[in-house]
UniProtKB/TrEMBL annotation, chain A:
Keywords attached to this entry: ATP-binding, Nucleotide-binding
UniProt cross-references to SUPFAM superfamilies, sorted A to Z: Adenine nucleotide alpha hydrolases-like
InterPro entries reported in the protein's UniProt record: Rossmann-like_a/b/a_fold (IPR014729), Universal_stress_UspA (IPR006015), UspA (IPR006016)
Keyword Glycoprotein: no
Family statement: Belongs to the universal stress protein A family.
Biological classification of the source: Bacteria, Pseudomonadati, Pseudomonadota, Alphaproteobacteria, Sneathiellales
UspA domain mapped to chain residues: 6-143
Listed name of the protein: UspA domain-containing protein
A Pfam family this chain is assigned to: Usp
From TrEMBL, chain B:
Major subcellular site: membrane
Keywords: Cell inner membrane, Cell membrane, Membrane, Signal, Symport, Transmembrane, Transmembrane helix, Transport
InterPro entries xrefs: Na/Ala_symport
Pfam families cross-referenced by the UniProt entry: Na_Ala_symp
Top-level taxon of origin: Bacteria
UniProt signal peptide: 1-21
Cell inner membrane in keyword set: yes
Protein family per UniProt: Belongs to the alanine or glycine:cation symporter (AGCS) (TC 2.A.25) family.
Membrane topology, as annotated: Multi-pass membrane protein
Species whose genome carries this gene: Sneathiella chinensis
Family annotation (NCBIfam families): agcS
Protein name, as recorded: Alanine glycine permease
Length: 143, 505
């Protein structure tokens, strides 16, 4: 069973630093990288009827856009010899990263520290503290 | 698109300014619309005298259907209540479906279309005319209506259209035409679907639009005297806001409403609860007033039947069970079995009528605000009741009313649009045409007096129920088969809670 690094990635420089750090570690340890793009989504949010009707199509588009960001990076790392998987999922970033960590028997979560935009704040800024409290596996925060 | 909206508003301005020159604009608009509306109203509300009171057959039609569905599905609204809560809570949500429409979201959206002025103003009217006893009949109709909602929302999901681009369309027009054609009743199905669509457009423009605009205007003009006698101006502002969201596709306004509307609902219910708790000593009297009022009313025109009609009418108008509207909103849900959405949908009349309407009514009764024949009715009566304990709550209520009205209008614009595109086909220009018509009716609704607006709204919304319920009767064996299949899958473990699934793996 290989060791797994679950790395939050949203295309920002901060998250890229986390990926670089994880890749460098993986090169030494032979661990597998899971590059995770979380699309913020709540099952309890409130939308108009018109939005609900388009939801299924939107979801596919969102996943496609997220994969377009994560897939090239995974390919790039693979070329460097690091086994990398691209993951795009809807949900709350903390919950998604923790549930992925639970799926693997041995894992650690690696994230960048701060983000600039509101989105990255939600994904990675507040995320660090929340993950520190909730993560079922060791957590590395890359400054 | 925004340009065409601006054009429409300008031409309305022009029309209204001409009318202004000849007298009151509001009067002019009322005069044009009333002769068209009145015959429709008297046809839909064909009444028969029962014990000296006119009983509109359509109200009996809806409650009878709700009773039949309740019995046919073995009191599913009571036996399945716990299961409904589990489904809404997300106990059966597959994590792989993250990002899809959840049962909670479908329920919340459908509720935003029904929780509105009916719960505030409608209950005020019911208690004013029907007395406290109307509450009893309203709750009864609400409980029975849960079975109607159950039936129509299962069919909505079962016969929805899923298109290649990922959009979903569902609702009575689809289950009436597709479901009945399976049984070799294609022509009847098509006829009912078109009949439903015509009424749905009318309902969208009436109860989903004019009534909302009218009552919001009543609220705003009470606070800002500037608007008094200028319903058309308020209507134009409201129409512009609605137009910006539904035609302009400006998400920011919709976003704000999405945040504020649920908050207002919580404030409203919270305030009602506080008033009920402060006056807890008056609760036994209020309950006894409700029961005596239901069976032996005094000071109510028409006695028992008068109270019953008011209660039934308001419940039906508020929760729309059997009308078919909610089925359009519920159809977008992601589910592995249509029956789950039936269970989710049955909570709607419960929350709308049994909880929220009853609270409004209790506040009115407990605070002693109901004075037969004093002319304080509708939202004014509800406002008076809340003000009795919270001075200044009238302002909060006015704000809430306008917001509820706004979100109801947005929902109904979609229901109307779906009926419109069902009849005339999909396409940008056809959609914009309907949306423009919708905006024009906002102005008309704000300009007319309450009586004709409420009659027209009720008439069109109830007329939707004529076609829908005929279809539900014919299709209910199919629902029963689906229900049987679902329960077999539940007991065999094919459909399981996520937690149980995870534990099994």
């Amino acid at each position: 069973m290989p060791y797994n690094y679950i790395v939050g990635f949203d295309g920002t420089d901060q998250s890229r630093r986390a990926v670089d750090y994880a890749a460098a570690q993986a090169e030494k340890s032979g661990a597998e990288l899971h590059l995770v793009f979380v699309i913020e989504w709540s099952p309890y949010s409130f939308h108009t009827a018109a939005e609900l009707a388009e939801r299924k199509g939107r979801r596919v588009q969102e996943l496609k856009r997220a994969e377009e960001i994560v897939l090239p990076l995974a390919e790039e790392l693979k070329a460097r010899g690091v086994v990398s998987h691209a993951v795009a999922r809807h949900g709350n970033a903390v919950e998604v990263l923790c549930s992925l960590a639970k799926e693997k028997e041995t894992a650690q979560i690696i994230i960048g520290r701060t983000g600039d935009t509101a989105l990255t704040q939600r994904l990675l800024g507040g995320l660090a503290i929340s993950l520190a409290q909730a993560s079922p596996v060791p957590l590395t925060i890359v400054p | 698109m925004l340009r065409s909206l601006a054009g429409a508003i300008c031409s309305l301005f022009f029309m209204t300014s001409i009318a202004h020159a000849e007298g009151s604009i509001d009067q002019a608009i009322s005069d044009i619309v009333a002769p068209i509306v009145n015959p429709i109203v008297s046809t839909v509300f064909y009444s028969v005298p029962i014990f000296g009171t006119d009983f509109p057959l359509i109200v009996g039609w809806l409650v009878l259907a709700a009773t039949i569905f309740t019995i046919y599905f073995g009191f599913v609204q009571f036996r399945g209540f716990k299961h409904s809560i589990e489904l809404v809570r997300g106990d059966y949500l597959d994590p792989k479906d993250a990002g899809e429409v959840t049962p909670f979201q479908a329920l919340a959206t459908a509720l935003s279309g029904t929780v509105g002025l009916g719960n505030i103003a409608g209950v005020g009217v019911a208690v004013y005319i029907g007395g406290p006893g109307a509450t009893f009949w309203m709750i009864l109709a609400g409980l029975l209506g849960m079975a109607s909602k159950f039936t129509e929302c299962i069919l909505g999901v079962r016969y929805r259209n899923e298109y290649a681009d990922g959009t979903v369309s569902g609702g009575p027009m689809y289950y009436l035409s597709k479901g009945l054609s399976e049984d070799g009743r294609a022509r009847l199905g098509k006829f009912l679907a078109i009949f439903f669509s015509i009424c749905c457009i009318g309902g969208a423009l009436g109860g989903g639009n004019m009534f909302q605009a009218n009552q919001s205007y009543a609220q705003i003009s009470g606070i800002f005297p500037f608007f008094e006698g200028r319903g058309w101006l308020f209507g134009l502002i409201m129409a512009a806001l609605v137009g910006v969201v539904i035609i302009g596709g400006i998400k920011s306004i919709a976003r704000v409403t999405e945040k504020v509307v649920p908050a207002m609902a919580v404030i409203y219910v919270g305030a009602a609860l506080i008033i009920i708790l402060i006056n807890f000593t008056a609760i036994p009297d209020a309950i006894s007033a409700i029961f005596t009022g239901a069976f032996a009313p005094t000071a109510v025109a028409g006695g028992i039947v008068g109270a019953l009609i008011q209660g039934f009418k308001r419940a039906a108008f508020s929760n729309e069970a059997g009308i078919g509207s909610a089925s359009i909103a519920h159809s977008a849900v992601q589910t592995k079995h249509p029956v789950t959405e039936g269970y989710v949908a049955l909570l709607e009349p419960f929350i709308d009528t049994v909880v929220i309407c009853t609270m409004t009514s209790l506040v009115i009764i407990i605070t002693g605000s109901w004075v037969p024949g004093d002319g304080v009715t509708g939202i004014a009566l509800t406002s008076k009741a809340f003000e009795a304990n919270f001075a200044g709550f009238g302002y909060v209520l006015a704000f809430a009313a306008v917001l509820f009205a706004f979100s109801t209008m947005i929902s109904w614009s979609y229901y109307g649009l779906k009926a419109w595109t069902y009849m005339f086909g999909e396409g940008k220009s056809k959609e914009v045409t309907f949306k423009l018509i919708f905006c024009v009716f906002v102005v008309i609704g704000a300009s007319m007096s309450l009586g004709p607006v409420i009659d027209f709204s009720d008439a069109m919304i109830f007329a939707m129920g004529i076609a829908n319920i005929i279809g539900l009767y014919l299709l209910m064996p199919k629902v029963k088969a689906l229900l049987k299949d679902y329960h077999e899958k539940l007991s065999s473990g094919e459909i399981r809670k996520v937690k149980e699934l995870a534990a099994a793996e």
